Amino acid sequence: YYAHDKLDDFISTINSHLQPLFMQIRKGMSEMDGRAHYALVNLAETEITKMASDYTENELELFRKTMDLIILSENGFASSTDILNLADQLKTKKMKKKEAEQMLKVFVEDKWLSERNGEYTLHTRCIIEMEQYILSNYQDVARKCNICHSLAIQSQVCESCGIGIHLPCVRKYFRAQTEPRCPQCNDFWSCDIP
């Protein structure tokens, strides 16, 4: 039996039973289409070591450097060319471009990255599971969405006050407004509404 208005209560009950196991079900939003996603998150380890059992040290280094490119970019994406150019700059062990290309496919299959037209971004699973890691390790650039208060990798930024809003949140928030204004400073929202 499923009562969608009781889902939050249901998850809260499950989480109270998962707490002694240092696990939690967390809700996140797809930055592509705004749909809700849920992930079972291990709270006992540091965020980046959750991946460690599945990947070698140089594969993890490639992922960290890819994450740097994505988070430090203006649009939340990194090109496959830029990522593949990192392969021979790894400190742990150099990687051939073909190996790096294969690893990108694995990161996409394992839902750490998403790919669209040769551009990579963080998958919803990655954002949910690594939100605290990203917020603490990228304090100067990581921002939370002003509308839903979740980590925003792909977002629009107000030119006046600098707040960020997820693209799906931008769509919803400005849908009914004829002249879009920033929810923080009330200045005109100059970005294109998707």
UniProtKB/TrEMBL annotation:
Coiled coil: none annotated. GO terms for molecular function: ubiquitin protein ligase activity; zinc ion binding. InterPro entries: C1-like_sf, Nse1, Nse1_RING_C4HC3-type, WH-like_DNA-bd_sf, Znf_RING, Znf_RING/FYVE/PHD. It catalyses: S-ubiquitinyl-[E2 ubiquitin-conjugating enzyme]-L-cysteine + [acceptor protein]-L-lysine = [E2 ubiquitin-conjugating enzyme]-L-cysteine + N(6)-ubiquitinyl-[acceptor protein]-L-lysine. Its EC number is 2.3.2.27. Belongs to the NSE1 family. This is Non-structural maintenance of chromosomes element 1 homolog. It comes from Sula dactylatra.
